[in-house]
Design goal:
Blueprint (H helix, E strand, L loop, with lengths): L1 E5 L3 H12 L3 E6 L15 H4 L1 E4 L2 E5 L3 H9 L3 E5 L13 E4 L16 E5 L11 E3 L10 E2 L22 E3 L4 E5 L6 E2 L4 E5 L2 E4 L4 E6 L4 E3 L4 E6 L4 H4 L4 H19 L12
Parallel strand pairs: 1-2, 1-6, 2-5, 4-5, 6-7, 7-8
Antiparallel strand pairs: 3-4, 8-9, 10-17, 11-13, 11-16, 12-15, 13-14, 15-17
Helix pairs in contact: 1-5
Length: 272
């Protein structure tokens, strides 16, 4: 069964890892210049580097649908710079997962594939897609919603160790972003962690840098450019997060729910 995941950031990657290990074939799409800050656990990084690995799973940039199909046959995950997901028209896609996390529906339709799932707010189950996965931290994180929508975006990051907005590294100006520290580095509140042109970007709290935009990325003032983890575990910088695993579990549940039906019997999805 071939699943198209739109988006290849850290939450999409956590989803891809969970599905890949469960035996699903995966193809992913993203922007020509991805803006995922958790680059060490985002398959979108292969858009820049050609190839990347997360927890032993290899993703490789593909330029065409034929290249993507060849990588799938080799057991790898192809990632295309294809923000409109046009590859969907060239491959035999059984399910689509919108993991762009734009907080609104950019282009996904319930008719895009036999099974269409979407992550987070901006979608209504039964209207835009067959099922929605809750992405807000808390009791319902990873829950499969068969009707209605996910919790609305609050604009406040989830609480980790008592910190919310302080965790984010935001661009201090518009222009070219240049990190001053690496992912995995420990920083103190007030440290310069990056620059945008001549304007410094300061850490708003002490902790370990878990995410950072790549050097040379063009940013706008206030744009999310990285994050700091107060738990200071280096392992957390290089492994799929608890949130991404929970969301991936919700997607896996959704695929099996619609694939097998309420009575648990296998239903007819092409390629299944």
């Amino acid at each position: 069964m071939l699943v198209l995941i739109k988006g290849a950031g850290d939450l999409a990657t956590g989803t891809a890892c969970r599905l890949h290990r469960a035996g699903f074939q995966i193809v992913m799409t993203d922007l020509e210049q991805p803006t995922a800050v958790r680059r060490t656990v985002a398959f979108s990084q292969c858009i820049y580097d050609g190839v990347t690995q997360v927890e032993g799973i290899t993703a490789r940039r593909a330029e065409t649908s034929d290249q993507a199909a060849d990588l799938i046959r080799k057991g790898e995950i192809p990632v295309l710079a294809d923000p409109q997901a046009k590859v969907r028209r060239k491959l035999s896609i059984d399910a689509v997962v919108d993991a762009i996390l734009a907080k609104k529906n950019l282009s996904t339709r319930i008719t895009d594939a036999p099974i269409v799932l979407a992550l987070g707010p901006g979608f209504t189950a039964g209207v835009d897609c067959h099922g929605v996965i809750e992405t807000q931290r808390g009791h319902h994180l990873g829950r499969l919603l068969l009707e209605g929508s996910a919790a609305p975006d609050t604009g406040i990051p989830g609480d980790i160790g008592g910190y919310t907005t302080q965790r984010l590294i935001r661009a201090s100006a518009g222009g070219m972003f240049l990190p001053a520290v690496e992912i995995g580095a420990q920083v103190q509140e007030g440290d310069v962690v990056a620059r945008v042109g001549d304007t410094p970007v300061y850490a708003q709290m002490s902790g370990m840098v878990r995410g950072m935009l790549p050097p040379g990325c063009m940013v706008t003032q206030g744009m999310k450019a990285g994050d700091i983890d107060p738990r200071c575990s280096r392992e957390h910088c290089f492994t799929v997060s608890d949130k991404a695993r929970a969301i991936g579990g919700g997607v896996l549940e959704g695929l099996l729910y619609f694939l097998c039906g309420k009575d648990g019997r296998f239903c007819a999805v092409k390629g299944g």
